[in-house]
Amino acid sequence: MRAGSQLLRSVGVVANDGVRLHVELDEPAPEFAPDGTEGSRVRPTVVFCHGYTMDMRAWAYQRHACAEAGYRVLAWDHRGHGKSGRGATERYTVDQLGRDLATVLSQLAPHGPVVLVGHSMGGMAIMALAQSHPDLVRSQVVAVAFISSSAGDMSELTWGLGTRLGMGINALGPRLANSLAPYQDLLLALWNGLPWLGNRAVAVSFFGSFVPRATAQLVEQMLMETDFAVISDFAPTLRDHDKKSAIQDFANMPSLVLVGDRDVLTPAQRSAAMAADLPLAEHVVVTRAGHNITLEHPELISDYILKLLERVDDEPAQPVAATPVNSVDVRPGRSRPALTLGRPT
Fold first, then answer.
1. What pLDDT digit, counting tens, does each position of 259-301 carry?
2. 3-class DSSP state for residue 13?
3. Nearest to residue 227, comparing CAs of 26, 53, 47?
4. Crossing angle of helices 195-206/213-225, nearest 10°?
């Protein structure tokens, strides 16, 4: 597979309610035709959908890996996140994210095969796309990856803190975030002044192993730069999310279902339930990994996405092992336990 230099361009896409969505494209190297062909073979556009309180920077390593492999890559910031615009409160829903994704595809990948890759809420947006635009999925989507995501049952989330405390956060967290929104700049300054608190909060919620400080800082930055009011507005739709029926739309295509064994936001059993409904899924559980696995174990996740892209060329697509493949990142230091509140190591 040949690779070469890439052309990055930023594009503004206007959603159906007028919100401007920020999109970035890594175009194929010059030896690839503009329509994504190398010789007579049509290659898919890889579309990355990020998670709640994050932005497209969460996909930095995977974007680079796919672009270097010669694929056309599209990444976008969800409404209210990153560089995308904000909309009306009632539009902060998973269903609207599905419509936004349809708009992005219609303008920037209207023809040819597409591979959808979603992390957490990004995976939910892909499910919403299937529910609202099943014809688009049937005609264009040739593979899908659900990474640290869930098709439902999010109201049972405990944040790894036990049922009572976790339910309390679910009930009071959105209202607290909304009430603190006017003071976000002050809180950000306090957060930056208390690195121990930031380290602990990020470790408990997002990671399952030791990560470089720069990685933790990036996650903190994306989280704290997301408007607290937006965080609050999205909370009900995540709690009520139920797209189990939409999973069936991806049953006949190669798929990847991947999660960390220490994910406290979308626990491994959620991924197992999705994988059970996807006959052509590779089901991967990564050892010592938390929710923000794309940054915690970037090379490993890139390898599995590239493996999925290779499976697109299989005719017909073949099932993979029915049981989860347990993978571990073996880079030096990755076996160290995370900074946690008593979670087993």
1. 999 998 898 999 999 999 999 999 999 988 999 999 999 999 9
2. strand
3. 53
4. 90
**Torsional class of 116: left (φ above 0), alpha (ψ -120 to 50), beta (otherwise):** beta
Query: Quick one: which of 139, 102, 124 has its CA closest to 52?
Result: 124
**Would you say 30 and 59 are in contact if contact means Cβ atoms under 8 Å apart?**
no
3-class DSSP state for residue 310? helix
- pLDDT for residue 265: 87
Report CA torsion sign: 170, 174, 175, 179: positive
Measured distance CA(149)–CA(215) in Å, rounded: 21
Question: Quick one: pLDDT band at residue 8, thresholds 50, 70, 90?
Answer: confident
Residue 332, classed as helix, strand or coil, is coil
- Report pLDDT for 264: 86
What pTM was computed for the model?
Answer: 0.85
DSSP 156-167: G--TTS-HHHHH
**What is the phi/psi pair of residue 76, to 5°?**
-140, 150
SS (H, E, C) 196-258: HHHHHHHHHHHCCECCCHHHHHHHHHHHHHCCHHHHHHHHHHHHHCCCHHHHHHHCCCCEEEE
CA dist 45 and 73 (Å) reads 6
Mean pLDDT across the chain: 83
Q: Which of 127, 154, 171 is nearest to 263 (CA)?
A: 154
Alpha-carbon distance of 275 to 283, in angstroms, equals 6
φ, ψ of residue 340 in degrees (nearest 5): -135, 180
Give dist(CA 88, CA 101) in Å, integer: 17
Q: Which residues touch 32 (CB under 8 Å, ≥6 apart)?
A: 38, 43, 70, 72
Interhelix angle 228-240/163-180, nearest 10 degrees: 140
Q: Taking the mean position of all CA atoms in its chain, how far away is CA 34?
A: 26
Strand partners, 25: 9, 74
